[in-house]
Every structure is written in structure tokens, then in C-alpha cells.
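quick one, 421 residues, struct below
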Amino acid sequence: MDSLTISQILSHYRNFDRAFWATYSVDFDTLYFVLHNDIKPMMIDCYFHLVCDLRKLDESLMKVNSGEKRLNNLLNLQEYCTISVQPCEGAFHPKILFFTSQEELLFIVSSANATSSGILSNQDLIGVYHYHLDSDINKDEVTVLFQYIKSFKDWAEEAKYDLDTITERFPFLNDIVQSNNIITIPHEQSLIKRVSEQIKSHDGLKKIRIFSPFFDDDLKAVSEIYSLFKKPLEIYSPAEQCITTLKVELDKNIQFFSTQTLKKKNFHAKFYEFHFENYSIVYWGSANCSYSGLLSPTRNYEMLVKHQMTHKEVTEYWGSMDAAITQEITYVEAKDEKEDSSYASFDVFIFNPRISDDELIVSITLKAHFTGNLRVVCVDRKNQRILCDVIEQLHDRLRTSFEPDSVYLFLESNGQRASNY
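---
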């Protein structure tokens, strides 16, 4: 577990030939900067594959519309990488960087997105797993991590090919291994269920500390953690106040604290400390203290990493918690939940565009009620719309003509935008 930034960590490595980056959100200007300043110097042949959350990619492409420079940055970025989305019920939320060479595998796992705050700041936790053919150090961990990123079904075709090539270099990556130090979802069991099974094999749990920037309005995950362990729960948040829609008051053994007096006042890290008399077992990673992050086994893509730490090491990272200020909890009425209006109107979701024989093939998912005809709209580096001829429309994909100068695309139906970017 490292307090360096991703940029600082990358400066220590050289001579890799392929890279993969799984992230929730992405800022293309920052990614272009990191590509030229951090990734290219460490790679012999600079080419990498990016996969991110479908909705967050759509938001990022909306921002690209705001200026020709951003469009050019994105087009130049595509000379060095493929960009994919991984659709899911909730959020595609893991943060994993993976580099490979003929002899080495390097995984950088974190709670940091591919954004300026995630890459250039130290508000996140980062772990490094480095494997070399000359040693078995981290062999099980890199195997688990590799199999997890390979399980993402909607990588670009080039990414899938490169992942298959890596298993030819390192055949052990196909082995079935168990690692209690890395747990992921989707899975048949939720993250908190597996954490509970591991923690209950240890005697003498005293209390639990949670550091998380986000919670459900109804604090469902907080309530479930207390129900599972029945131990005092200390919750630290950078939020200015704690507001919940819970209908009954929390147990007196559950306390919220402001982090404004701590060493790290603001953070994006997710950190769960199970405090025993002489040591602590901690889990950190991408999962917020929420239903989607901890309680549901299938809604999100998430990852947690397990470490044993001394109490001194925990304090050195977060600072002394003796001066933390208790937060009062405000109870309010729940509001009616509404579907995100920016996506409720979409009849089609598009992903995994790829070029084949001078044609563009786009995978699509249609809402059940949709029966209209679609047309593909490409946007070039000058922010000009280019209408492409649809050669074939099937229930799961489109074949269309291709404009080489395109930066991104979307679908229209009856003159209206019908899909994500």
C-alpha cells in the first residue's frame, strides 16, 4: 500500500510493451498528459487498452465537445490506445493498471480514477504487484488480477487478442488459484460476506473503522456491517455533515466523525479497518460503503485488497484519530428516486466499436420497446457531424460505413440522439 501518486510509481519502471487500464471515470486531457509524460517513457512499444464505465465515458465525451483542442487530444490518444466500455447493472468501478513485457507483469491497483485528481494527487490508496519470471513473488496475486481483468467481456477485439497473447508468454495465468488477499465482484457472494467470513476466523475483534467518501442515503451498508459484527463502528468521512433517510436512529455504538482534523482531511480512498488488540486487518480498494459496493454480489464491478497492518502503520497513514470531531446525524424523509434523466430517454446502448474490412461494426443493446431505424453519426476533429450509411441493422449490432477522421460516434433515430456516445 503506497502513498505515492500513480505518476510517481510509473517513473520507477521501464521496458514494457503492452498496457491495460480499467477505470470508472476518465479525463481525456489528463490521460493524454500521462500518456506522454509517464506511460511512453516506460514502454518500448507504447500501446494500451482502456476500459471504463459506460455512463462516465459518455460524460467525458460530452466535455470533449467543448473545444477543438480536446477533440484533437482524444484523436491523438486513439493512435496509442483502444477505448472500451463495460456495461453493467450498476457501476463499472475497479481501478487497475496492468503492464506486461516478455519477462515481467506489473499491476497497480488503487481507488484512483484516470482523472487529474486520481492520477496526480495522493487522495487515494495504491498497491503494486510486480512479478518477474525469475521469482515466484506475487505470482498468485498477479494471476488473480489477470483473470479478473480478462473476465471483462467487452474489451476491444485488439485488447482481447493481446490478453490471449499474454497467457502464451505466461501460461500459469490460466491456473486456478486462490488468494484471500484480493476479492472481487461480480461473484456469487458479496464483498462484505467474504470479508465477514475471513474476519470471523480471527478472535478478539475490538472495533471497526471505516473511511469512505460516499455512503447510501439510507446507510444500508453501515447497518449491515454493524449487524454482522456487533462491534463499535467508527466512520470517518470528508463530508461536511451526515444526512440519512433512515427511519430509525442508528445504534449508539455507530459513530460518525469528520476528517477535517485528521492528517488526510480530504480523500477518495476506501478503507475498512478491523481493529484487534495487537494488529489490524484492513481492506481497501474501489468499493464505497454502499449497497452497490459491499452488499450486492453482482450490481457493480469492484475490488478490495486485504492487508495486515500494525496500529502504528494505520495511524501513520491517517494520522491520530484522537482529535476527530463527532458528526451529528441528521435524519430526513426519503425523496422519490428517479432514473437518471440523461439515460432514461436512450433506447439504445452502444459499445465495442471495431473496424473490419473498411466497415465499422458496433455492438448494441436495444430496449424492448424500440422498433425504429438507426443511423450512425460520427464526429470529426473539427466537431463536424458525419452521417454514415447503415449497411445492416441486427438486434445486437450494426454494420456501417466508416469515416477515418472520426473521433467518436453515436446513434440517432428520427432525428434525435438515441444512444450513449
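The radius of gyration is 23 Å.
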